[in-house]
Design brief:
By secondary structure, the protein is an all-beta fold. It is built from no helices and twelve strands.
């Protein structure tokens, strides 16, 4: 994937059939506030580390890494378990809440810079030609919800089977767009832990910096 990947993927009605059917449904469970690791409300535009609930054998915090020495950078989970990774902030779709709620459309923005000279806002990439996976990558646009940014919005949901939360891609910022929804999980490839759409979610907590 080269520099041409800087263009956002627009998953709309006019796209090819693989993107026209939602494979998973994520309806809002409640308007419950997301809590950080200390039990406080998760706040917008405040720096947090994101790390797995079970760190033993599950890697460390989240960061960015180059894949095949090309841009854009991909979102990874650090292999080194004690590592907190890079801090990031959450930008809510209305940019007004005092706390982040479950099922809210969010931008995830790393507090970092890369040699790719592009934003560190998360976005969901296209289907990889080699692996068939859709990875979470950088280069998204913050704010401006709509058809042009639909691939840049993620949600936080409560993990159903225990403590912690999961990150979900199922944006609702475009009423006429059809998106392939899914959990954000981890693919272990070439010695790294790449984030992407997966049946198995990465269960996380949020630690304020």
């Amino acid at each position: 994937m080269g520099l041409s990947c800087l263009a956002s993927a627009i998953l709309c009605l006019f796209l090819s059939p693989p993107f026209l059917t939602s494979t998973q449904s994520f309806s809002p469970t409640s308007n419950t506030t997301v809590l950080d690791a200390e039990g406080y409300d998760l706040q917008p535009n405040t720096m947090y580390y994101v790390f797995p609930v079970q760190r033993t054998g599950n890697g460390g915090g989240l960061a960015l890494a180059s894949r095949d020495r090309k841009c854009p950078y991909y979102v990874i989970e650090e292999n080194y378990e004690p590592s907190n990774g890079l801090s990031l902030r959450f930008v809510a779709v209305d940019n007004k809440p005092t706390a982040i709620s479950l099922s809210t459309d969010l931008n995830f923005v790393f507090n970092a810079a890369t040699i790719c000279v592009q934003s560190t806002t998360w976005r969901l990439g296209d289907v990889d030609d080699v692996t068939g996976h859709r990875y979470v990558i950088s280069g998204g646009r913050t704010g401006r919800p709509g058809v042009d940014t639909v691939s840049n919005w993620f949600k936080i949901e409560k993990f159903e089977d225990g403590d912690g939360y999961k990150i979900v891609f199922c944006p609702s910022v475009c009423n006429f767009c059809k998106v392939v929804c899914g959990n954000v999980g981890v693919f272990i490839e070439n010695g790294k832990r790449w984030l992407g759409l997966s049946d198995e979610p990465l269960v996380v907590l949020f630690k304020k910096v």
